[in-house]
What does this fold into?
Amino acid sequence: MTSKLSGKGLTLIRGESCLFRGLGFALNPGELLLLEGQNGSGKTSLMRAIAGMLSLETGEIYWNDMEVSRQRQEFHGALVWLAHRTGLKGDLNLVENLRFEAALRPQANVDLAAVCKRLGIAKLKRLPLRSLSAGQQRRVALARMLMADVPLWLMDEPFTNLDREGRKLVMELTEEHLAKGGMCVLAAHQDVDINATIKRVAL
Amino acid sequence: MSDSSQQQPGILAGLLAVTRRDLLLAWKRPGDVLNPLFFFAMVCTLFPLAVGPSPEQLTVSGPGVLWVAALLATLLSLNALFMGDHEDGSLDQLLVSPQPLPVLALGKTLSHWLISGFPLVLISPLLAMTYRMSTDVMGVLMLTLLLGTICLSLLGSIGAALTVGLHRGTALLSLLILPLAMPVLLLGANTVSLAAGNEVYATGIWALGAYVIAALSLAPFATAAALRISNE
It folds into this structure.
């Protein structure tokens, strides 16, 4: 069965303003959903709604043609969320942080050392994360995403704090993930240069 | 890419992972662990100095003072339960984790108890000596505190989850928790008083045990629901 993520008739009202109304999308394996919009247009809110952390006014998110709300555990097992805040512990070092994530996903089978080498953070293993630069911390967050080994990536502004090579690396990783049949929802306010089927949602 | 339905992770994996991480964090920042412990020790040692050293008075007030100090020390430490995770975004990650949220919440509560509740139980006999408590009564005190602090950590996790998004939620948290914590305090302090007066005290222990079981079976689900609500 092919994994498929879709949303129908999504409406979100925050306070007085309506962020989006009647929004819909459908995403197939190997495709990228690009959320575009200005600051505060609701990109992060839509992503939180897709992850099932925010209840929508109307509409429903579907995973494999079944409502996400009825299969939350399975859906969460298939996604990883690269949020604006890294969600890593500053007092722990890279290995301790990633080991914790690996313990939450015992079925994932990814080599930690290879991932760290790929992201250029192999030499930072013993330092507590708070002593790393913002860009390096972002790379560790990317490492966590790779370690999860799941089909759906939710990436909220993945290029923040990264240098030019880092940005290139994120695009490469995304391309590889999509080529393997993965799916990606990406929120960005800058142009992305990714060679894959891109569907756009303008907010 | 692995199929998530192929192999279900064990239900305890999340609990162990969260507990281990939080204990590791506490090990790296021992100040957080020692704060409630210092508070408990200070209140218990200052009280006899303030009210005077008459043995009769100390024997009567001892159980109550020790129990109130333990309750307040636990309440003080509760605010931090989800605060750190909320600030660095790891709480969001726990909410979308493949592990069931009640299990993760129970893991957080367990580590909270191991860090701030269990040490209170361990040092309580030392402080009980100040109140001229006999060894038998000390045993009862430790047993009630053991059950009581488990209760308080579990009940407190609900309040901490509800107030996690609020700035300066400590006062609100205490208000939310106190009605639920009151029976624990009454049962605990009175049981120790009964034991000190050579009366039958077993009922209190059983009642505390029942309270622990009720809290253990309900609190993780309430905490999980509260976390989802306060993180919308």
Observations:
- Residues 10-230 of chain B form one domain.
- DSSP finds nine helices and no strands in chain B.
- Confidence is low (pLDDT under 50) at residues 1-8 of chain B.
